[in-house]
Amino acid sequence: MNNKQDKCEILIIGAGIIGLAIGAELSRKGREVIVLESENKTIQHASSHNSEVIHSGIYYKNDSLKAKFCVEGNALLYEYCTKHGIDYRRSGKFIVANNDQELSAIEKLQLNAKENEIEDTRILSNKELLTLEPNLIAEYALLIESTGIIDSHSFALSLEAEIENNGNHIITSSPVTSGRYNGNEWELTIHGDNSYIIRSDIVINASGFNSIDLAKKFGVENLPQITYIKGHYYKYHGKNPFNRLIYPLPEEHGLGVHTSSDMENSLRFGPDAEVVSKIDYRFDSSKERFSKFTDSIGKYFKGFDSNLLKEDFCGIRSRIGATHKSSDFSVLFQRDHDLEGFVNISGIESPGLTSSLSIAKYVAEDL
What we know:
Elements lengths: L6 E7 L3 H12 L4 E4 L16 E2 L10 H20 L3 E2 L3 E5 L2 H16 L5 E5 H7 L7 E5 L3 E3 L1 H14 L3 E3 L4 E6 L4 E6 L3 E11 L5 H8 L8 E10 L8 E3 L10 E3 L6 E4 L3 E3 L10 H12 L10 E11 L10 E3 L1 H4 L4 E5 L5 H15 L1
Helix pairs in contact: 1-5, 1-9, 2-9
């Protein structure tokens, strides 16, 4: 496509997992779509700096968008992976408890799961756990069978292929700097290698970290405030002794230092959760951070060798809400902000990957 083309039916800002999922969904419906990405490649931020976990929806309030999209998205994602040959592993996960207070906490999580219509959960005792996970230290654990791992990069490539095979386009190195509605259509200013203007009937802002700031430039008011949460991951350079993902109880800003894996069954720990003021992927390798990781891991990993734990990578998520428990996604349409043909999506942190196909379906049905 020639970048100078100046008109499209639907413009999507941001080629992370959410933007690509929406683009693929609309492409299947025969809509004309262009996806604009400021970076020189797709999925360069939160979409590629995460645990690659397919979440169940167990943590989220029943009436929240996170609960709605995660529970529905879980099933849609497994179905998509099977249909399109994307590698995944439906491993299940344990949330561990080691005393009566923690047992009460996982019992509450199980009740929340039932409210969210997640039925594949049960609480196991130490004797049962020793049979299933002999290297796990836990008196009790809540098993969630629908949790898994996905090859998120292959998933993204599949979504890209759907967009392009349906005659639509993804244009990288094209940062959108502003936009205005002229009474008939939107005019977006692009400042990349060459500056130009693209006109569109509908604009979907799925620009991740930049979503709130960019929405303000489009004239959206009363937007939620974003908090940036930085998470560090360490990789374990030893054999993965677990068959399932292992999680401690959730903390104020995250799900605790948990295990994650990949299709090669390597073992990773993280993320921790630290409120930051800017996007910075540098790894903070302080002794204090390392000690917090090793102390947490040692509580549930029998035979853990801290000498095999090495720095891996960082991720940053944008959150709406003061804590992990109180946070939610934001998807705003014309009825919310009174701007014709404009959809604003923000605060897409975990479980954004799991929720992506459900969010795409939700947005497409409203257009």
